[in-house]
């Protein structure tokens, strides 16, 4: 039986840290669906969601085990629809763990067949986060070294 994981996030933007988690996750599962979700906590996206979908697909064009979907529903519901038994998440620090642990518990309540797998971010990528990249880009700074695609 094929083991499918969903890697959910707003990915605004998708970074080399995210790419690292996906590629390492493929050592654990057979297929990863990157789910670009609408985050109700974020009013406006910096990068258009369809643009980010295109860039992520471009990044993994050579990796047939990775696909991309845009969704606007609970992650646990999407996981059920696509046959995913795993939610894949990356952790940079203990703050990330506290946040992700709470979400994991709710997802498990919503879908008892769903397990969360947490991968620790590679040390050289731990300082990279989408908020910082957006801010640097907004003020004309070069963010290319943090992204696996060309803006």
UniProtKB/TrEMBL annotation:
<comment type="subunit">
    <text>Homohexamer.</text>
</comment>
<dbReference type="Pfam" id="PF01467">
    <property type="entry name" value="CTP_transf_like"/>
</dbReference>
<feature type="domain" description="Cytidyltransferase-like">
    <location>
        <begin position="6"/>
        <end position="135"/>
    </location>
</feature>
<feature type="binding site">
    <location>
        <begin position="10"/>
        <end position="11"/>
    </location>
    <ligand>
        <name>ATP</name>
    </ligand>
</feature>
<feature type="binding site">
    <location>
        <begin position="125"/>
        <end position="131"/>
    </location>
    <ligand>
        <name>ATP</name>
    </ligand>
</feature>
<dbReference type="GO" id="GO:0016779">
    <property type="term" value="F:nucleotidyltransferase activity"/>
</dbReference>
<dbReference type="InterPro" id="IPR001980">
    <property type="entry name" value="PPAT"/>
</dbReference>
<keyword id="KW-0460">Magnesium</keyword>
<dbReference type="InterPro" id="IPR014729">
    <property type="entry name" value="Rossmann-like_a/b/a_fold"/>
</dbReference>
<feature type="binding site">
    <location>
        <position position="89"/>
    </location>
    <ligand>
        <name>substrate</name>
    </ligand>
</feature>
<feature type="binding site">
    <location>
        <begin position="90"/>
        <end position="92"/>
    </location>
    <ligand>
        <name>ATP</name>
    </ligand>
</feature>
<keyword id="KW-0548">Nucleotidyltransferase</keyword>
<feature type="site" description="Transition state stabilizer">
    <location>
        <position position="18"/>
    </location>
</feature>
<feature type="binding site">
    <location>
        <position position="75"/>
    </location>
    <ligand>
        <name>substrate</name>
    </ligand>
</feature>
<feature type="binding site">
    <location>
        <position position="42"/>
    </location>
    <ligand>
        <name>substrate</name>
    </ligand>
</feature>
<protein>
    <recommendedName>
        <fullName>Phosphopantetheine adenylyltransferase</fullName>
        <ecNumber>2.7.7.3</ecNumber>
    </recommendedName>
</protein>
<comment type="similarity">
    <text>Belongs to the bacterial CoaD family.</text>
</comment>
<keyword id="KW-0963">Cytoplasm</keyword>
<comment type="pathway">
    <text>Cofactor biosynthesis; coenzyme A biosynthesis; CoA from (R)-pantothenate: step 4/5.</text>
</comment>
<dbReference type="InterPro" id="IPR004821">
    <property type="entry name" value="Cyt_trans-like"/>
</dbReference>
<comment type="function">
    <text>Reversibly transfers an adenylyl group from ATP to 4'-phosphopantetheine, yielding dephospho-CoA (dPCoA) and pyrophosphate.</text>
</comment>
<keyword id="KW-0808">Transferase</keyword>
<keyword id="KW-0547">Nucleotide-binding</keyword>
<keyword id="KW-0173">Coenzyme A biosynthesis</keyword>
<keyword id="KW-0067">ATP-binding</keyword>
<feature type="binding site">
    <location>
        <position position="18"/>
    </location>
    <ligand>
        <name>ATP</name>
    </ligand>
</feature>
<feature type="binding site">
    <location>
        <position position="10"/>
    </location>
    <ligand>
        <name>substrate</name>
    </ligand>
</feature>
<feature type="binding site">
    <location>
        <position position="100"/>
    </location>
    <ligand>
        <name>ATP</name>
    </ligand>
</feature>
């Amino acid at each position: 039986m094929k083991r499918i994981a969903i890697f959910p996030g707003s990915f605004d933007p998708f970074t080399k840290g995210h790419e690292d988690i996906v590629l390492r996750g493929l050592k654990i599962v057979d297929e990863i669906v990157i789910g670009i979700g609408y985050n109700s906590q974020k009013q406006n996206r910096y990068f258009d969601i369809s643009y980010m979908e295109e860039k992520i697909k471009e990044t993994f064009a050579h990796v047939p085990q990775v696909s991309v979907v845009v969704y606007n529903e609970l992650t646990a519901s999407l996981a059920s629809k696509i046959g995913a038994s795993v939610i894949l998440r990356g952790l940079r620090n203990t703050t990330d763990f506290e946040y992700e642990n709470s979400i994991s518990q709710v997802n498990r309540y919503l879908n008892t067949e769903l397990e969360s797998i947490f991968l620790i971010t590679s040390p050289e990528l731990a300082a990279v986060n989408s908020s910082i990249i957006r801010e640097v880009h907004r003020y004309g700074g070069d963010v290319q070294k943090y992204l696996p695609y060309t803006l």
